[in-house]
Design a protein that fits this description.
By secondary structure, this protein is mostly helical. The protein has a domain of 113 residues. It contains eight helices and two strands. It has a two-stranded antiparallel ribbon. Helix 5 packs antiparallel against helix 6, helix 5 packs across helix 8 and helix 6 packs across helix 8. It is rod-shaped and about 140 Å long.
Length: 238
């Protein structure tokens, strides 16, 4: 005997007695058996019918509960399968998100490393050489081909200036290739390099054109000029 629990629907009075269909059926079966033994022959036919009806009811009730049990088991199994599928889908979705984030981080890291290269002391020296070359051409206007040929023939300081400008343009070409191939974050690069690309493509267009016409390098700066067109919205192909 247990202390009654107000939340337990099976307790009666002050005694906790499990009341379910099995207990009821056993009790009724015992009662009918006792009655069948005690009553006379006159009532046995009626009792036989009652027992038959009761037995049929028991079978029907048992079948109903068996069906409910099977249905519940089937629903539980289906629910478990749905939960497994949902967990798998969520895991795949999380994995895809992590993969996309990792790819984004990788591209941003590449973009910031390119910016870091531009801000390096070496690049500052190259920019100084580019500025000096631009001043030379402003003071003494001449075709780029003439400037380059004189620098190569005389082996003077102008050759070093041309070399420095060429290194800058090569870095800008590398940036253009990274953008085209999705290697670096374009938004980050554009926010930093758009004006730089426009400035060098404009100021050293003659050098770019002359180098592009050289033997073996017809498309040396093609990607850079395409990036310039893309970023300034002209959409022109070179």
């Amino acid at each position: 005997m247990e202390i009654p629990n107000d939340k337990d629907p099976n307790h009666i009075g002050q005694v906790n007695i499990p009341v379910n269909i099995v207990v009821i059926l056993v009790a009724l079966s015992s009662l009918l058996t006792l009655i069948y033994i005690c009553i006379g022959k006159t009532y046995k036919e009626a009792l036989d019918f009652l027992i038959h009806a009761f037995t049929t009811s028991v079978i029907a009730v048992s079948a109903h509960y068996a069906y409910r049990t099977l249905r519940k088991a089937e629903k539980d199994k289906q629910s478990e399968e749905e939960n497994r599928l949902e967990e798998r889908r969520q895991a795949e979705e999380d994995q895809q998100k992590e993969s996309r984030q990792a790819e984004k981080d990788k591209k941003q890291d590449k973009a910031y490393r390119l910016i870091g290269r531009w801000n390096s002391p070496e690049m500052q020296s190259l920019e100084l050489g580019a500025k000096q070359m631009r001043n030379d051409l402003r003071k003494n206007p001449q075709p780029m081909q003439t400037y380059i040929q004189e620098a190569e023939e005389n082996n003077n300081q102008n050759q070093e200036k041309i070399y420095k400008v060429t290194k800058i343009l090569n870095l800008l070409v590398e940036i253009a290739i990274c953008v085209e191939n999705g290697i670096a974050d374009e938004d980050v690069l554009k926010s930093f390099f758009q004006e730089i690309v426009e400035d060098y493509c404009e100021k050293f267009y003659d050098l770019i054109h002359f180098r592009s016409e050289g033997k073996g390098h017809p498309k040396r700066y093609k990607k850079l000029l395409e990036l310039r067109s893309k970023w300034n919205g002209s959409g022109e192909k070179t």
